[in-house]
Amino acid sequence: MSFDIADLRSQFPILERTIGEKSLVYLDSAASNLKPYRVAERIRNHYLNEASNVHRGVHTLSDEATTAFERSREKVREFLNISSSDEVIFTKGTTDSINLIASSGEGFLFKSGDRILLTEMEHHSNIVPWQIAAERIGAKVIATKILESGDIDLNDFEAKLKEGVSLVSFTQVSNSLGTVNQVKELVELSHKYGAKTVIDGAQAVAHMDVNIKELNCDFYAFSGHKIFGPTGIGVLFGKKDLLEVLPPYQGGGAMIDSVTIDKTTYADLPHKFEAGTPHIAGVLGLCEAIEFVEDLGIENIKAHEDNLVNLAVSRLSEIERVKIIGHPNRRSSIVSFVIEGCHHQDVGSILNNCGVAVRTGHHCTQPLMNRFGITGTIRASFSVFNQESDIDQLTSSLQKSIDLLD
To answer: Which of 51, 110, 140, 152 has fewest C-beta within 10 Å?
Structure first.
């Protein structure tokens, strides 16, 4: 690790908070990551000193805002190793990105009678949009089984591909189990059988290197707030030849070339999919967040978080009645568990009183909970600002929870 953890933590003012009399231990980054000072300051500076719309005017403020906005697009392109900035679409987040593909893809990526393949570990935002689109057009949504380990059943995955699938959509990292899927291999298999691929990268981009050219996926989506950025901003990557074929998701200003009452022609990529005034401050904040990650080094972040989650798994395994759900071949910064005889929500409330913020419930993955025969879990998710003492506070608080609920 090439960064000083005390100095790093000082960049996150929220970590100075106490909950009751306990220091805050934030273990909920899978839901939303904390924001460093510099991201908040970048947003503040825009509103106070650059506040103007983009792509709209010839005056200095508009020109400065547009330059910063498009520089942010280029930053995303570089960060993910995307071929062209034309393939970088700004959205509201991963959910919005997937809805865009599901809506615009009707009749283009899939048609009546086609099958759309998901997995049992998907977040609801990677299930429901496909169900809505499938019902509307007359397609069918199916899912690949998940093994007891929490990994995708590759035999079942390929068997379903062989039966005929037009589109496959899956997460790179499970938001419930931390499973790191074999994305490159899954994409290659999907393409082998003629299916287009959509990857939910929400839980990946802040924790590991993502190289779009190497993955060769057709679409990739992530959210800014998962990578230390603002809420309400996200990115959709799409291969240019596919984006050019797909119709716009929404209509309005900025996405047009020419408008008459009889007919409208659309702007070139990427603006064809960015109707209306965008979340300019969000885009600039996202750019600053990516630069924050780059300054730390994604490999340094991954090494630090891997050490933490491995230690957490080991320490949790020593606590009687704690059962970790899923032991995948590769795990990211997430561990989910249940406590025999205790409801996850009760445990979460006691942990909160001890200053420990975790997520409890089904984590928007009800099919996965059904697969394991549970209603929900306690989920601890780690980020670069966490430290070993956070795990000490988690485990001691869990033991207190068990004693109180006995």
So the answer is: 51
Report the number of distinct structural domains present in the chain. 2
Q: What is the pLDDT of residues 295-318, one digit of tens each?
A: 999 999 999 999 999 999 999 999
Structural domain contains residue 23: yes
Q: What is the pLDDT of residue 406?
A: 81
CB 17 within 8 A of CB 25: no
Q: How far, in Å, CA of 199 to CA of 290, rounded?
A: 19
Asked if 15 and 46 sit in the same domain, the reply is no
Tokens at 55, concatenated: 């792509």
- CATH number at 328 reads 3.90.1150.10
In terms of domains, do 87 and 210 share one?
Answer: yes
Q: Are 165 and 195 in contact (CB under 8 A)?
A: yes
Q: What is the mean pLDDT of the chain?
A: 96
- Domain shared by 51 and 187, yes or no: yes
Is 35 inside a domain boundary? no
Q: In the predicted model, is pLDDT for residue 1 greater than 70?
A: no
In the predicted model, is pLDDT for residue 250 greater than 70? yes
Domain boundary, last residue among 264, 294, 324: 294
**CATH code, domain with 49:** 3.40.640.10
User: The dihedral of CA 312, 317, 321, 326: what is its sign?
Assistant: positive
Residue 355 burial class via C-beta count within 10 angstroms: exposed 0-12, middle 13-18, buried 19 and up = buried
C-alpha–C-alpha distance, residues 44 and 69, integer Å: 15
Q: Is 342 an annotated catalytic residue?
A: no
> What does the longest C-alpha to C-alpha distance in the chain come to?
72
- Cα–Cα distance list, 225 to 36, 235, 390 (Å): 12, 11, 22
Residue type, 124: H
Roughly how many angstroms between the first and final C-alpha of the chain, as a whole number?
40
Selected catalytic residue, list 217, 342, 354, 364: 364
Q: Which two tokens stand for residue 183?
A: 């994305």
Do residues 285 and 314 both lie within one domain? no
